[in-house]
Amino acid sequence: MSVVAEVIVRPLTLDDVDQAVQIQVAAFADLAVRVHEPPTVVTEALLERSRLRHRHFITHDARGSWAATVDGKLIGCGLALRREGLWGLSLLVVDPAAQSAGAGRKLLNATLDYADGCQRGVILASTDARAIRAYATSGFALFPQVAASGKPTLDATPASVSRVRDGNAADRALADVIDRGVRGAGRGADHEVISASGGDMYVVDDADGRGYAYLRGGEVYLLAATDDDTATALLWRCFMRGGELGLETHVDHMTGEQQWAIAACFAARLAVRPDGPVFWRGATPPRAYVPSGAFL
User: Fold this and answer.
1) What value does the mean pLDDT take over residues 74-78?
2) 289 near 126, Cβ under 8 Å?
């Protein structure tokens, strides 16, 4: 009779980072095959961003950073953050060769322990059916989402885009104020790693509203605002920059609450398609908001 090795969950360490990133790449490549989507092109820049992300969480959220091992070998990891009463799951991956053996559930439970005392919780899911079931049966409400991509057509750019200016490190305190009103928590040190990962910041701060967005290449990395009009202006500024760079633009994580964003994507002639769901606990999806997959 064969003996099944036990999955051990322990704190993730800086020594695990390189291997954890390789597991992340393998897990998402496997998912792409299973859901019949094109795989992400793995570049050294992408790998370095992933390493930076893991190191950031181990440093700032040690109690939310976990490794799963079998016989001492790393087979998966989970990263979760806490920011001012908001808990979020940033990443949960298991080596494809070791999936469906309980490691994912053990990692999820470990990261959820880090949520004790938080009023709100959020998980952005992939389209993996097993992950969706795990999150939906862990006390979170499911909200369907769509994503958009393509080279934007700018004929419908609103005049309000003139409200948007370039942001910088001095605007991070303003961004935290906006985030507290929108999602219930500021980002703090997360701004540093988002900028270090190549995020360009845009800001609105006037009598009609406040908001900010990060654009990384053609990806709208995150956006938060006090109202729909300000959010729309920021999103169109991202479309304009994507057009200037000649890059395909991507806007992910739009629920039914983001009708302003969905309307803008259609106006810019982007292709809208189903996306993985978002899960919230203690709240519903914020309205003038597009979350970051890594920093929610």
Assistant:
1) 95
2) no
Position 146 pLDDT exceeds 50: yes
Residue 289's pLDDT is: 97
- Quick one: pLDDT at residue 177? 97
Neighbours of 39 (CB within 10 A): 12
Single-letter amino acid code for the residue at 96: P
- Mention every residue, 6+ apart, whose C-beta is less than 8 A from residue 143: 255, 256, 257, 277, 278, 279, 280, 284, 285
Instruction: Give the pLDDT of residue 56.
Output: 96
Residue 44 has pLDDT above 90, yes or no: no
Is residue 35 scored above 80 in pLDDT? Answer: no
